[in-house]
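User: structure tokens for this one?
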Amino acid sequence: MERIRLEFPEQRLVHRHAMTIRVSDINYGQHLGHDSVVSLAHEARGQAWQALGFPEWDVDGLMSIVSDLAVQYQGEGKLGDALVVETAMDPVSGKGLGVHHRLVRVGDGSVLATVRVGLVFAGPDGLAVPSARVSGEIERTVAALACEVAR
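Assistant:
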């Protein structure tokens, strides 16, 4: 079976969110469950939108809707592991954009999973192009964090 390979675009980083693996995140194999990886990425995405100044259900008047999702599992997380979920955003392209997440265990820096989410934006009349303000906030944050990381 061929596995998918996802690249995390570090140069497009917009947010880092600290989390801890909870009892409810553990599956019968005693490690982080696949469904919880998606939930942790969703939480981090919501926090990233908040940090950009938009609740994810109101991105400057539009809803963000998941149009596709890919997950590459790369390691096992255990109960109580401290994580940082890094979020990167592609430039807005038409009516959507790609959002990338990387779940990193704080203790040893190992990557547990890389996630790519395709988002489309919609308003009351269907799919819509987001405002220039949305693109501007993403690009300003990417530029600011790139300068911070370069130091």
